[in-house]
Amino acid sequence: MGQRSQIYVRIQEGDKYHLIARYFGWNFAERMISRCRYTLKWVTDYRDQGYKMFNPDIITKLSRIIEVNFDMCDIVLSQDIIQEYYDLNFNEDYPDIKDYVFYDQDNNDGRLLIDVPESGPIKYAFLDDKFHEDHVMDAAQYMKWDCKDWKNSEYIDVEQKELCRNNIKEISRLAHLMTEDETIEFLSCDYVSYYPEIPEEFWISDIGMNVRECVEAIHFYMDHPGTDNRSLACCQTKWEAYKEAIKHFFGISSYLHKTEEFVGIASGQGEKQRWLYKAERRENK
Predict the structure, then answer these.
(1) What is the rounded distance in angstroms from the CA atom of residue 46 to the CA atom of residue 77?
(2) 29-48 helix and 56-67 helix, angle to the nearest 10 degrees
(3) Is 137 strand, coil or helix?
(4) What dihedral angle (degrees, nearest 10) is formed by the CA atoms of 107, 112, 117, 118?
(5) How many CB atoms neighbour CB 98 within 10 A?
């Protein structure tokens, strides 16, 4: 399949950086340019009005804005690359998340990076299909790279060519082009998006406390076989529902986990394993 590309948007809050990483199956040339222009416009308008970009609602909206081609009144559904990484089974041979997100994606039509700081100029860069950091392109250079003779192309109609010219001008007005060093820093940044967590507010809510009680009970019954098989079966059934809810609302695949000191819920395997919730074993309390 051709016309594969990726769009990455970084959002800053203090010393934290969130990354939106989307994989497209039909996004190229003038379509990529259009998405770049209108994403920059949407981000600029939101940020300049004083809205905080670093919150789940805004990030979800922005992920959808990226998918829309406003010039063609069309939308192309994209894949969340970071979520896809966590949906896959972990093993020690699996690529590091940074490698997977940026370098392990099929690509024919280049990549777009957009950097949204809390203040100051928004920046962007187009990269080629090989992800050469030393080949940073502006919008006009990207069009020439992806569709060499696009101004004379029979596959782009006159109206779309004019829209593309205008979009290229608007991109230059809305954002600054990244330098090579800025591009390398963008790709190597340790994004909070790489380590999704369940908010503390969830664990102190009614449902969160129910999940905690259920998880601790399962571990207790499993550590004491025959104590109460009926209650164990009931808790295990509840846990399956809670696990699906955690996946749905927080995008995290989780499982029951225990050590000599703690019991709880974890995500990932090996070096990538991390606690989502843990409590001391009852006999240790």
Answers:
(1) 23
(2) 150
(3) strand
(4) -100
(5) 15
pLDDT band for position 165 (cuts 50, 70, 90): very high
| Residues 51-82 pLDDT 10s | 778 777 888 899 999 999 999 999 999 999 98
Res. 49: pLDDT tops 70: yes
For residue 280 the two structure tokens come to 């001391």
**Six-digit token pair at 18?**
């969130």
Does residue 66 contact residue 20 with C-beta atoms inside 8 Å?
A: yes
pTM: 0.77
Residue 192 has what DSSP assignment? Answer: G
Mean pLDDT rounded to a whole number for the chain: 89
Quote the CA–CA distance of 124 and 20 in Å, as a whole number.
Answer: 14
Strands 74-75 and 68-69: antiparallel
Contact between 114 and 124 under an 8 Å Cβ cutoff? The reply is yes
* DSSP E strand stretches across the chain: 5-13, 16-24, 68-69, 74-75, 79-80, 111-116, 123-127, 176-177, 255-258, 262-267, 274-280
Cα separation, 241 vs 2, whole angstroms: 39
- First-to-last C-alpha distance (Å) of the chain: 57
* Cα(263)–Cα(254) distance, integer angstroms: 13
